[in-house]
Amino acid sequence: MTTYAPLQNDTFLRACMRQATAHTPLWLMRQAGRYLPEYCATRARAGSFMGLATNTDYATEVTLQPLERYPLDAAILFSDILTVPDAMGLGLSFAQGEGPRFATAVRDEAAVAKLEVPDMEKLRYVFDAVTSIRKALNGRVPLIGFSGSPWTLACYMVEGKGSDDYRLVKTMLYSRPDLMHRMLAVNADAVAAYLNAQIDAGAQAVMIFDSWGGVLADGAFQSFSLEYTRRVLAQLKRTGVDGQIVPRLVFTKGGGLWLKDMAPLDCEVLGLDWTVNLGAARALVGGAENGPGKALQGNIDPNVLFAPPAQIATEVARVLDSFGTPYQGAGTGPTHIFNLGHGISQYTPPENVAALVEAVHRHSKAQRA
Amino acid sequence: MTTYAPLQNDTFLRACMRQATAHTPLWLMRQAGRYLPEYCATRARAGSFMGLATNTDYATEVTLQPLERYPLDAAILFSDILTVPDAMGLGLSFAQGEGPRFATAVRDEAAVAKLEVPDMEKLRYVFDAVTSIRKALNGRVPLIGFSGSPWTLACYMVEGKGSDDYRLVKTMLYSRPDLMHRMLAVNADAVAAYLNAQIDAGAQAVMIFDSWGGVLADGAFQSFSLEYTRRVLAQLKRTGVDGQIVPRLVFTKGGGLWLKDMAPLDCEVLGLDWTVNLGAARALVGGAENGPGKALQGNIDPNVLFAPPAQIATEVARVLDSFGTPYQGAGTGPTHIFNLGHGISQYTPPENVAALVEAVHRHSKAQRA
Q: How many CB atoms neighbour CB A230 within 10 A?
């Protein structure tokens, strides 16, 4: 058992466990990113995105940057969702101004047959970063580890890059579901090993980003995405290096229609995008006092951050009020973790993030008064 | 009152009115398009997309092309959703291999103030095409007219082209909702006039494509998209030049979470994308025997068309069965119009479309047996 500094702000972890907090905790997807000039400066020194992600010192530095500016309630490992297929040998790169790209795409039976759970030593740089960040945080806020979901990884592995129609990956899904299932099984076992190693390295919560689950048809989502998220969750460690429970968060962008299908998942938190009404989601899966249920995370439109501070505060209040007052008792009940419904835009004015954070803390305290 | 040849196949119109049919009617969004070599040949002769759309003979020719290949149950006007803002003076063009683009974007108060419902004479080429197509169809199947929704038009008018984050249009929405409401009101009145002129020219049904409604946050969708779709519908003519009722179809891509909000719309049909379970949608808004309700249109994933015919037939059966057997009585009840959940891909093999059409007719007849 490793010893780290005691946690000073446990609002995020408590909300994950559906326990009462004095305010609604918040963090922002992609909070360490290009909208921050200090991030751009570090990235320039690192030379490339992967240069940044694979260097422990740089990864630690950029993970902590948003915490220096804003009183956020959690940190998230700086990395990419595609590290796992990179470790499988597909050759991840990020061209300037473009999204991720794999040197090798997985498009036929032979390519799928070759896929294996990678040696986790190839991902040592991620686990080293987790430990380094955990130490650097020194107990300020908890550290979230993460991975892409098996389906989301498969999208990139087949397409070779981002896509606007998912034609190639869906062609495989509909034409050769057997190949798709084989790839997803490998991905799920790899993601589970990857997240467990992050937990061993010091992660205090883990999140599965099913960024592309929402592009699937009803029926296909359940078979090709949800089923493999379930397979990941079944293999995850329940406690971290400090003996504490490690909450598991699942976020399917565009998955609002399938909340009921996600309710039985063995995880603590469901992430929601901005299309979902938080009050309706709470009624559906938030659970009752001392009964089972999911904590909910989300879901403001990141484009709200392009409005002036007064409108940001209005929209923040609308999101918090749509969830309603979180549970305030001594046991467990419905709780809310404030976040964006998607990653923050690189064009966001940093001062508007300050306005958002302030509004969340202020209004969520007022809700409880 | 204009006289056209009597309609030989009324399955589409009957299904729109929630009346029984011997098979489930189908048509395909973007059925006249680049996946057909004969379309590409005509487009090459026309020189450009707008050259095609603005020429009555070419527009008629390509509209009828898919009907020569497949026993589809409806035709849809060949045109673009952005003709209305083009007529407002924004200067629509289609660069080779790219999406639509406006010469002038609408991004500030002055630009919004200048917007007006355009003189419908500027859109005469569309109405001429409608009349020409209606004549050329000679009663084979009904002709659907269409427009983009007020919100969808606004997305393009502000962004100036397609977008993957809708940052500019949402910046206006959240920063200056007054400007956005003004633009949407003009758009709604323009769309209503445009669709009414299509009805006068011979359209037998009209569809509003809210292609980008699904990118809005819960709450914003209701205020900035649905409300203006409602404003269009309130102004639409109820009968066509032949005295027949003109059904109105509304399709919000990504709008599955808001079906209940759409139920009170004064329209006959709601379109659904592939994320929606048709059985659940039927239970929610499909109505009961002889009670009010919406006919449902959709919703197979267009990427199914990249699978071999046997898998296409399986997926077609799955979609038809998820709706269940449509109403078969003498009055009105839940009905289904088969379609894709989005426009057909330009890469689709034409022979796979034949397999899909055959499977829909065959399986939907079997459902009723």
A: 18
> Which residues on B lie below 8 Å from A281 (Cβ)?
none
Structural domain includes residue A245: yes
The pLDDT of B144-168, averaged and rounded, is 96
Judge whether B69 counts as a catalytic residue: no
Indicate yes or no: pTM above 0.95: yes
The domain in which residue B248 lies consists of: 11-299+329-344
Does a structural domain hold residue B364? no
Q: What pLDDT is attached to residue B1?
A: 58
Q: What is the mean pLDDT of residues B300-324?
A: 98
The tally of domains found in chain B comes to 1
Q: Which residues of A touch B318 (CB under 8 A)?
A: 219
Residue with tokens 């047959």: A113
Selecting from A165, A276, A301 the residue whose C-beta is nearest the C-beta of B170 gives A301
Q: Find out whether A197 and A123 touch, Cβ atoms under 8 Å.
A: yes
Query: Catalytic: which of B43, B134, B140, B248?
Result: B43
- Residue A6, in any domain of the structure: no
ipTM confidence: 0.96
CB B359 within 8 A of CB B312: yes
Q: How confident is the model at residue A25 (pLDDT cuts 50, 70, 90)?
A: very high
- A167/B347 touch (CB, cutoff 8 Å), yes or no: yes
Q: Is B316 on the interface with A (CB under 8 A)?
A: no
Q: What is the CATH number of the domain that holds B73?
A: 3.20.20.210
The yes-or-no verdict on residue A74 having pLDDT over 70 is yes
Domain assignment present for residue A65? The answer is: yes
Chosen from A275, A304, A306, A312 to mutate, greatest number of chain B CBs within 10 A: A275
**Separation of alpha carbons A69 and A35, rounded Å:** 12
Q: Which helix (H) or strand (E) holds B250?
A: strand B248-252
Given a contact cutoff of 8 angstroms between Cβ atoms, the answer to whether B169 and B163 are in contact is: yes
